[in-house]
Amino acid sequence: MACSAGCAHVVLVPTPVGGHCIPFFYLASRFAHLGLRVTFLVAEGLVPQLYTHKLFTPHVGLIQREGIEVLSVKDGFSHLGFGPGLMAVFREASEPQLVAGFSEGMATLMSSTKVPAPCCIVSDMLMGWTQIMAAKFNIPRFVLHTQSAANLSLMLHVPTLLSEGRLPLTETNQEKPVEIPGFQVPLPTSELPSDLHPNAMLPNAYETFLRISRRAAEAPIVLVNTFRELEDNVFDALDGLHQNSATPKPKVIPVGPLLPSAAFSTHGDATTVNGTSEELDESIMRFLDSQPRKSVLFITFGTAGILQGEQHIQEIALGLEASGQPFLWTQGPSLMDPNKPTLSQLVPPGLKLITPHSHHMRYRPLHFKVLSEIETSLRHVLISRPDRRVTPEVYMVN
Length: 398
Known about the structure:
This is Glycosyltransferase. InterPro entries: UDP-glycosyltransf_plant. This protein is of the alpha/beta class. The chain folds into 3 domains: 9-145, Rossmann fold; 149-254, Rossmann fold (3-Layer(aba) Sandwich); 275-376, Rossmann fold (3-Layer(aba) Sandwich), CATH 3.40.50.2000. The chain has helices at residues 18-33, 47-52, 57-65, 82-89, 95-111, 130-136, 149-163, 205-218, 232-244, 278-289, 309-323, 343-346; strands spanning 9-13, 37-43, 69-73, 120-124, 141-145, 221-224, 251-254, 272-273, 276-277, 297-299, 327-331, 368-372, 382-384, 394-396.
C-alpha cells in the first residue's frame, strides 16, 4: 500500500547486526503495507554493510522493493571499523555523541516539506539512548525486542531485582533462585544472562545491561518478535503488570515471527531463505518432528556471540553428545570477525555434521545434529531443561 501525503511516518533505528537488524526489515515491510512511511536511521559507516554483507543481502531487497528510505547519519564511531564501532555504541560515554549525530538525521526529517514529520521512533532494545532523542523531538520511542518474551520479562524485571537486593550477584545472594514474571519455576542465578554475572566477558556489560533494561521500561509499548501461543504464560504475566502495576509498565505486543513469507511456503523448488535452502529446512523439520515434545535443545550464540576458542566449542560438543539429549546447533557467518573459524572447523574430529553441503550424512544414534555455516530464522535461544523434575518450561539463556 502506497503512503499518502498525510500518512504517519515511522523512524526505525536497528542495531546493525544480523539477529537484530533483519527482523526490522520485515517489521518495516509490514508497516509499509499498512500505508505508513518508513525511514531507517543507520550510522554512515554501517550502511554499506546492509547492501554487501552476506547476512543482509538475502533480506535487504525487501526494503528496496518497498521504497523504504535508509538515511545515513554520522555517529562518530564508524571510522573505528565494524566490531570496535559497534562496541562503542553500547558505552554510556558514547550516548551524547550518538544522540547528537542521529538527531541531525531526525531534524532533517522533521523539517522536510516532502515527507510528513515522524510521529514516533521504533528502536532496538539495545539502542536505549534513542529514548533521549525521542524526548528531544517530543515524540514517543517504542521498542522492538528481537529476542523472546521470556528474555524481555527478565529485562523488565531488572529494576525490581535491584530494589530487592538480588542484583548485583554476590556470594550471599546467588544461591537463591530468582522469580521472573511468567516463569513457572524460579530461575537459578546461574541461568541469568551472562552480562549480569561478575565475570561477564565484555567490558562494562553489567552496567550496559542495567541501562538498557531501565530504558526499555520507560517505553510505552514494546513489540516482541514472537507470538503469544509460544509464550502464553509470559504474555499473561506482562499483560497483568501493564494493567495493574503501581508504576507504569510497557504494553507488550507480539508481532512475530518476523520472517520472510517464503519461510512458511510449502510450494515450489528449493530456494534460499535466510541463507538456508528449503531442502535443508525440511530436513531440520523432519528431525524436530521425530523428537519428543520440548526435548530438543536449540543452541546459538548470535551474530556477536563470543566463545573462548576451540576448546570451549569442543567441550560443548562433547558435553552435548554425552548428554544423549537431542539438539540443534546453528552458527551463522560472523559480522564481528569474518575470518572466524566455522563451527565445522572447530568441533572435535569424528563428530558427524549435518551441513548445507552434506546434509545426507548419517548422524549418531543419539540424534544430535550440528548445523554449521547457516543462519536460522530463530534468533532467540529456547531451551527445555531436561534435568528438572517438573514439567519442562521454555527459557531464554544468553
